[in-house]
């Protein structure tokens, strides 16, 4: 119910994005967790590691999303020991999708899974409501509606690592400016064959636009 | 700006829509899509014109309930032409916007219509005004409205620059409408654009197959 949602931490009111570039992926999120009209956490990192080179972006009910991420993190650890090497991104996405689909009535969480593996390079998977699709980029959360036009116009294949990071930062900044439920700082994670890099862009370092 | 009506029986035809207006160096561009739908399920018109001329150099875009918007515009046209006869000069753009605002505010209980007003007058040059659902009137350099507008807030914020040339502004407006029509299922059809400057008024219609395409189309 609405009052139950208001009482609990609600991360569905958020902006998350993941994009593929030539050689890896970049994930990004805002940092606001709101319960109704109150911001209960203004520095929450919604990018959660599932494995060394596989991350997921959380949205929806904070509790549900975090639980799914923790369970899949455990399952991937076991799986990677069984196969004797690093897991594929598709495997991680499938594990997330299996939980989302089985508990779709009880849970409300949308995780975007992105990472790099040796077999297929950088990949982004959306797992909304139990479907599994591989996409060049994915956006989610309430703030995503405002930036569909921007990402449709600006995304193109073959972007470099720096271009992709800037694209994610611009998109998050635009969404955070328009969506009352997104805000705070921007968290970015860049994953490629060489490793995983986490960054924080503080509020005053975010790009500004013509009316600011 | 507009709440999308989901019950077709009580609300009738509504313009799930995308409208925008933007000021450039020397004039203003105002435009819209051309789809009218009933309850978001049936497209009742593929080529409706939502850009209405209320005076020589003043145009309006309507959003919300089509019936309400047409009724308000009809009354506004009358008030405005009477006003310009009394003043013995063409009306100011803000006068047109104020007339719409008065009608929307005084009848806010019964109406569900919002407007963008754009035009050129001698006193203040190019201007854009927004009259929202309850009757608020504000002036902006660029503004968007309708159900499809949510998807292009990011694009407009990023790509609009003050003092663009006419060609840049037309391209910006066409791109923005095309992007919104691509994501909003109740916006579509052709893009109607009107360019208003001191010299006059120019209509541009971009049919569906000539709209800009983006990376996944």
TrEMBL record, chain A:
<dbReference type="InterPro" id="IPR000243">
    <property type="entry name" value="Pept_T1A_subB"/>
</dbReference>
<dbReference type="InterPro" id="IPR016050">
    <property type="entry name" value="Proteasome_bsu_CS"/>
</dbReference>
<dbReference type="Pfam" id="PF00227">
    <property type="entry name" value="Proteasome"/>
</dbReference>
<protein>
    <recommendedName>
        <fullName>Proteasome subunit beta</fullName>
    </recommendedName>
</protein>
<dbReference type="GO" id="GO:0005737">
    <property type="term" value="C:cytoplasm"/>
</dbReference>
<dbReference type="GO" id="GO:0005634">
    <property type="term" value="C:nucleus"/>
</dbReference>
<dbReference type="InterPro" id="IPR029055">
    <property type="entry name" value="Ntn_hydrolases_N"/>
</dbReference>
<keyword id="KW-0378">Hydrolase</keyword>
<keyword id="KW-0888">Threonine protease</keyword>
<keyword id="KW-0645">Protease</keyword>
<feature type="active site" description="Nucleophile">
    <location>
        <position position="14"/>
    </location>
</feature>
<keyword id="KW-0865">Zymogen</keyword>
<dbReference type="GO" id="GO:0004298">
    <property type="term" value="F:threonine-type endopeptidase activity"/>
</dbReference>
<dbReference type="GO" id="GO:0002376">
    <property type="term" value="P:immune system process"/>
</dbReference>
<comment type="similarity">
    <text>Belongs to the peptidase T1B family.</text>
</comment>
<comment type="function">
    <text>The proteasome is a multicatalytic proteinase complex which is characterized by its ability to cleave peptides with Arg, Phe, Tyr, Leu, and Glu adjacent to the leaving group at neutral or slightly basic pH. The proteasome has an ATP-dependent proteolytic activity. This subunit is involved in antigen processing to generate class I binding peptides.</text>
</comment>
<keyword id="KW-0539">Nucleus</keyword>
<dbReference type="GO" id="GO:0051603">
    <property type="term" value="P:proteolysis involved in protein catabolic process"/>
</dbReference>
<keyword id="KW-0391">Immunity</keyword>
<dbReference type="InterPro" id="IPR001353">
    <property type="entry name" value="Proteasome_sua/b"/>
</dbReference>
<comment type="function">
    <text>Component of the proteasome, a multicatalytic proteinase complex which is characterized by its ability to cleave peptides with Arg, Phe, Tyr, Leu, and Glu adjacent to the leaving group at neutral or slightly basic pH. The proteasome has an ATP-dependent proteolytic activity.</text>
</comment>
<keyword id="KW-0963">Cytoplasm</keyword>
TrEMBL record, chain B:
<dbReference type="InterPro" id="IPR029055">
    <property type="entry name" value="Ntn_hydrolases_N"/>
</dbReference>
<dbReference type="GO" id="GO:0019774">
    <property type="term" value="C:proteasome core complex, beta-subunit complex"/>
</dbReference>
<keyword id="KW-0645">Protease</keyword>
<dbReference type="InterPro" id="IPR001353">
    <property type="entry name" value="Proteasome_sua/b"/>
</dbReference>
<feature type="active site" description="Nucleophile">
    <location>
        <position position="17"/>
    </location>
</feature>
<protein>
    <recommendedName>
        <fullName>proteasome endopeptidase complex</fullName>
        <ecNumber>3.4.25.1</ecNumber>
    </recommendedName>
</protein>
<comment type="subunit">
    <text>The 26S proteasome consists of a 20S proteasome core and two 19S regulatory subunits. The 20S proteasome core is composed of 28 subunits that are arranged in four stacked rings, resulting in a barrel-shaped structure. The two end rings are each formed by seven alpha subunits, and the two central rings are each formed by seven beta subunits. The catalytic chamber with the active sites is on the inside of the barrel.</text>
</comment>
<dbReference type="GO" id="GO:0005737">
    <property type="term" value="C:cytoplasm"/>
</dbReference>
<dbReference type="GO" id="GO:0005634">
    <property type="term" value="C:nucleus"/>
</dbReference>
<keyword id="KW-0963">Cytoplasm</keyword>
<keyword id="KW-0647">Proteasome</keyword>
<dbReference type="GO" id="GO:0051603">
    <property type="term" value="P:proteolysis involved in protein catabolic process"/>
</dbReference>
<comment type="function">
    <text>The proteasome is a multicatalytic proteinase complex which is characterized by its ability to cleave peptides with Arg, Phe, Tyr, Leu, and Glu adjacent to the leaving group at neutral or slightly basic pH. The proteasome has an ATP-dependent proteolytic activity. This subunit is involved in antigen processing to generate class I binding peptides.</text>
</comment>
<keyword id="KW-0888">Threonine protease</keyword>
<dbReference type="Pfam" id="PF00227">
    <property type="entry name" value="Proteasome"/>
</dbReference>
<dbReference type="GO" id="GO:0004298">
    <property type="term" value="F:threonine-type endopeptidase activity"/>
</dbReference>
<keyword id="KW-0378">Hydrolase</keyword>
<dbReference type="InterPro" id="IPR023333">
    <property type="entry name" value="Proteasome_suB-type"/>
</dbReference>
<dbReference type="InterPro" id="IPR000243">
    <property type="entry name" value="Pept_T1A_subB"/>
</dbReference>
